[in-house]
Amino acid sequence: MLQITVQTLVTAFLAFIFPFIVIIILTPLLIKTLSKRGNLVHDYHKPNKPLVPAPGGPAIFISLILGESIVYLLTGANGALALILVTTIAGVIGILDDVYTLSGVLKPTLLIIASFPILILGTYDFHMEFPLFGEVRLSIIYPILVLLAISVTANTVNTIDVLNGAVSGFITISSIPLILALAFKGSIDTLLMVLPLLSVALGFFIFHRFPSKIFPGDSGSLSLGAVYGAIVIVGGIEIIGIVALLPAILNSFFFLSSVKRLVEGRTIKLRPTNVLSENRLEASRNGSAPITLVRLILADGPLVEKEVVQNIFKLSAFSSFLAIITAILIWVI
Questions:
Q1: Residue 42: beta bridge partners?
Q2: Residue 95: how many other CB atoms lie within 10 Å
Q3: Predicted model pTM
Q4: Which residue of 170, 175, 239, 302 is most buried, as measured by CB atoms within 10 A?
């Protein structure tokens, strides 16, 4: 059973509120700074292709680090320390990618380094729990999976960062089943580690939603994905995390199966969607264009950008619901 104490409630309050306040303060300051310095990128999904400040990643990973630091200082959990280090490494790699545009092979390779803190600190359990089948021991292969996991989740979440508010809203929704799963499991310390992720994603969404005032950039989306993956590993809720991320996982699968190689999305010349008037998007009719989740959503006809994002959120909510059911099958029934 989940043990709730006054200290737990105080830690939960601070772990959620503090990073939320920080992201709310830092993001507008970053918008002004980036705009003044000319760090602007085109929003290609709008007819006039307006310029938007980017990257918002520094505000995201600084807020995440501060939030996880609160959890670490108040609980002493090594898992929180691992998350701090994972976030820092992923954030630095993301900044390098924002500045230099790393190749489709180099970026995921570098992100393997972000898995090292989890392995070095030993904040994982090689016993995985499955619904119906129960616990499975993976003592030999699991460390190898951990080594790859952060790179996979970071890049998978990064691929969903295609429209205004998509990645921040997606992570906000996908964090909820993690909280419930950890509550069912009784892992209070790891549950507290989810709260900074939820609050930072929610706080950034306020500025990232349509029409975006700032883009997270790879430093932002990679940080969110890396922390998500690290929490899933530290908490031992791998199956729940996979189910909740299914829309992003399918998006990555569709993209890789169509381009048939690891490639940086920004270097693809053929776009999967076309922009029509009145902010409407349509699926590309070019058979050589990459297949993506957005392109499939638009297969039935053009939609405005907000409608596409709402469909992504609906898919995320459905996957999160399935993840909650999965958690119930493992730890409740």
A1: 51
A2: 20
A3: 0.95
A4: 170
Extract the tokens encoding 31: 């918008």
Q: How confident is the model over 23-76, as pLDDT tens digits?
A: 999 999 999 999 999 999 999 999 889 999 999 999 999 999 999 999 999 999
Q: What is the rounded distance in angstroms from the CA atom of residue 116 to the CA atom of residue 119?
A: 5
CB 57 within 8 A of CB 217: yes
Question: pLDDT tens digit string along 244-294?
Answer: 999 999 999 988 887 766 666 566 667 889 999 778 999 988 877 889 999
Residue 216 CA to residue 201 CA, distance in Å, equals 10
How many Å apart are CA 208 and CA 172, to the nearest integer?
12
Start-to-end Cα distance in the chain = 14
